[in-house]
Write a structure and sequence with these properties.
The complex is a heterodimer of chains A (254) and B (223). With 254 residues, chain A is an alpha/beta fold. Chain A contains six helices and eleven strands. Chain A has a seven-stranded mixed β-sheet with strand order 6-7-8-3-9-10-11, sandwiched between helices. Chain A has a four-stranded antiparallel β-sheet with strand order 2-1-4-5, covered by helices on one side. In chain B, helix 1 (2-19) packs across helix 5 and helix 5 packs across helix 9. Classes of the chains: A alpha/beta (254), B mainly alpha (223).
């Protein structure tokens, strides 16, 4: 039972890994957004997803959040079998998408308070989270509809900071953030993994995301096609084609 | 579930208080409908008094469609729907919360429309208790159906035009039973007992409230 009193029926799969995808297929309409993706992410690990537009990075994040149904293969996130129940995992997952899901007519503080309360988080965590993201004073009392894109991003990050999810799914998290906020995001990611959370981060900006990463995973055509150990310079990094990779096909990453 | 419902209802009502869509747009629209019907039926009072009960419920239904659209629009867009799904809230709690917020807004509308019916149409109230009973049951049913169909339509393109098309036929029993109960309360119409009509409103509300609690989760996933 979690702190809200719900029994995680479909989350009883014994799984030491935060994310386990094996030959996962997910459809967006008729289009295979994930076409046999294989990925394993451990707790306390930061994995950066990279690849061209349409490679399946966002779809993979949405599948891990239970927002996109995995129709074939295996998909277990935080011990929850997403093939059986894809909603139970969401209470433990925090997602920062392309656009921030904020209520324009509520103030910054009200938005964060509602999101934290909804997730069963502690109300006392709201103040420090807002303060950390620089959302204090007049900004905290401003309607979300009046914020700039970067400020909205900060509010969404404040929700994550206050909720402290076990799995962070960040889709282009650096977009729209200024240098200070980017640095803060880096700190938050490091703190989250130090606390045992796993972070899956989709990004085109490898120069800012790779320093945070333990691994960089390359996606193409809805599949994971290569992975590299993070920390190598871009020039030196030679993507390691994964064993079992077929031409244009997927591969198992473990 | 109830804690989540309270949180969602509080959030929706706070948004309404800030945006004032009900006050600035829906209420004037509802009053305008009453006034236009008065122009169409006037100037003699007889037809207006006879039609008062039906026109109250017709005006309420039209205004309710706007209220439902607004309630659904708050969570619209992919980010909004994803945000609601990712929120961790119990879907049944979301449904009940949105229904409660809609109920509060509809009650405010009903108070205004009741005054309008008395002032514009010269209707005399014989049984205020019956009117209130019909309104309470009818409002719960309308709000429950509105929350369900608002969410259903919000995931579709052309949801603005589709919602009335989907919603109005479903709430026809509310229009019929509400009108008959109000006719009895105003002493107009064909006569006969009002109890069956109030019972129909109660059953309608109970069915859709129960249905919403059960199917709102799958509906939210599919929308």
């Amino acid at each position: 039972m979690d702190r809200r009193g719900w029994a995680p029926v479909a989350c009883a799969v014994p799984m030491p890994r935060a994310v386990h995808l094996r030959d996962a297929v997910a459809l967006a309409g008729r289009f295979p957004a994930l076409a046999g993706a294989n990925l394993a992410v451990d707790s306390g690990e930061v994995v950066v997803l990279t690849g061209p537009n349409g490679a399946g990075k966002t779809s993979l994040l949405r599948a891990c959040a239970g927002l996109l149904a995995v129709t074939r293969g295996e998909a277990v996130v935080l011990g929850c079998d997403l093939r059986r129940d894809r909603s139970s995992v969401r209470r433990q997952v925090g997602m920062l998408g392309h656009s921030s899901a904020l209520y324009d007519d509520l103030t910054v503080t009200e938005n964060v308070r509602f999101a934290v309360r909804a997730a069963g988080g502690r109300a006392e965590a709201v103040g420090p989270a807002l303060e950390r993201l620089g959302l204090v004073g007049r900004v905290a009392r401003t309607s979300a509809g009046r914020l700039s894109q970067g400020q909205r991003r900060r509010v969404a990050l404040a929700v994550l900071a206050a909720r402290r999810p076990e799995l962070w799914l960040l889709d282009e998290p650096h977009a729209g953030l200024d240098a200070g906020a980017r640095s803060l995001l880096g700190e938050m990611v490091r703190e989250a993994v130090a606390g045992g959370a796993a972070v899956l981060l989709a990004s085109h900006e490898l120069e800012v995301s790779e320093p945070l990463a333990d691994r960089v995973v390359q996606m193409s055509g809805g599949r994971v096609v290569a992975q590299t150990r993070a920390g190598l310079s871009t020039e030196k990094r030679v993507p390691k084609l994964l064993p079992g990779l077929r031409a244009g096909g997927g591969a198992h990453v473990a | 579930m109830w804690r989540d419902a309270l949180a969602v209802a509080g959030k929706d009502l706070r948004i309404e208080m800030r945006s004032r869509v009900l006050l600035n747009q829906v209420m004037p629209f509802a009053l305008m409908v009453l006034v236009l019907f008065a122009f169409a039926l006037g100037p003699s009072r007889g037809p207006m008094v006879d039609a008062a009960a039906g026109l109250f419920w017709v005006a309420l239904l039209f205004a309710a469609v706007l209220g439902v659209q607004r309630s659904a629009a708050v969570e619209s867009g992919e980010a909004g729907r994803d945000g609601l799904r990712m929120s961790g809230l119990d879907p049944a709690g979301i449904f009940l919360g949105k229904t409660v917020a809609l109920c509060v807004e509809l009650v405010a509308l009903e108070v205004l429309l009741s005054l309008g019916v008395v002032l514009f149409y010269g209707a005399h109230v014989r049984s205020a208790g019956l009117m209130v009973a019909a309104c309470v049951a009818g409002t719960a049913g309308l709000a429950a159906v509105g929350s369900l169909y608002g969410t259903l339509a919000s995931g579709l393109r052309v949801s603005e035009t589709l919602l009335p098309f989907l919603l109005l036929p479903v709430v026809a029993p509310v229009l019929l039973a509400g009108t008959r109960a109000w006719q009895a309360a105003l002493g107009t119409g064909p006569g006969g007992g009002s109890e069956p009509w109030v019972e129909l409103l109660v059953i309608f509300a109970a069915v859709y409230l129960a249905l919403g609690v059960v199917i709102y989760g799958p509906l939210l996933e599919a929308s």
